[in-house]
């Protein structure tokens, strides 16, 4: 039987040219909204939202819980505060929703890109056939084909990681739009951008991921070089010896990677902590207020001493002269139980040497021969005054170490034991779980107390014990100024991070780096009305978050700590 002639009204378009909307975007079908695949955008979005909501609600609700325990306000006030926090964090302007858009949206964009690319490759290349198809198709098909042509022509030979990065750039831009445009009305014209802290955090984490990526590449290259040199220098026979040589090369490369990363973490923490501590004394407005409050509670310094350091920096308080701020320390000195003359700059010696010894004998200050400046007793802890040991700089460092260790243990015990209590509560009674956690808490507390005590010992070392005695002709306005004992203490305390293990050093370096960067930027850049800074912040936010999400998919071993 011969084939029937097709009717003029019958569609004669070849089967391979029929492109429907459902074929082009298959993951929009209802049957694929909740598949078993854990990498599906819907499942990724749900997991991301609840995880970020948990991480966001914890710190936000902690002050409410503390007020509830202390009963500092009524139950009605607590309920209203709880409702405001819950609405703020779970709404469209909240951090969880924005991060969900960035993570889940990146996965959705990537799947859309792949679907578009697949169907674009299946389309005929004959230009006449394409023009005829576009002329006879519906408006929706013409629009889809136009999008296909434009999108697929952007990066024709893109790699999977490039497609993932581009998808994450689009989703991160949407997340930034949500955070900035919805929250912008809540911040004043001279306040930082609502996403400024996040941009710094993402930038530091993304830079660290890039550094880890290059370190891994360098370690792999060193392993190959070692294996080649080993094979050329030895006569290795048998597969077992070859495997042993390869394992030795991998081990050496891994050791190099770990030692290099640990050294970089140590240097970054040292530099960042030095900047933070210097700004704490002279420019606390550059640091987050909560961070300044936490450092103040650990340092246990009277505010009048901090004010004195700042007026010395501005040269409004000079040894040997009277000024409008001469009375600044009078009340503080009396509160510590010393004569008021100990806080008078007009009678305090500005230089060391024999003249300073005469002045100290007149003022009744013991144990300060050969140096000038403010008596060190006024800088020591008030606890040493109550014990009658305030004239010893070494005892002051030991007392500050002991007090700091107690406070640090109260801080680090929950940090190391709460994860065990939440995940494996029964194992807390087992020796092989409890003892390592306790030792880790002691190690962390030792680090923090050493950080604190080494700072104050470096201050005493500079202005009293050694340096000021070696160079008595240098005025104490220099030793007590911004580039004297405060700077040396800031440069000293950061090396205490060597007490911590390698993993903790890296995480602490990543924690303090955003704060150090914030303290190093010009204040007018941080203000939200600076156009150039706002544009740079948006670019950094989008590229950094997109890079982190791309590393999480293709190179998760490059991420550390919270990023992973």
Main β sheet profile? none
Strand content: under 5%
Radius of gyration: 32 Å
Q: Low-confidence spans: pLDDT under 50, at least 5 residues? A: 1-25, 27-31, 126-137
Number of helices: 22
- CA-to-CA gap between the ends? 68 Å
**Could you say which overall geometry the principal axes of the C-alpha atoms support?**
globular
What is the share of helical residues?
55-70%
Give me the count of strands: 0
What series of H and E elements makes up the topology?
Answer: HHHHHHHHHHHHHHHHHHHHHH
Structural class: mainly alpha
Query: How confident is the prediction overall: mean pLDDT?
Result: 81
Protein name: Transmembrane protein 135 N-terminal domain-containing protein
Organism: Rhizopogon vesiculosus
Keywords: Membrane, Transmembrane, Transmembrane helix
Transmembrane segments: 49-70, 91-113, 401-422, 434-458, 478-498
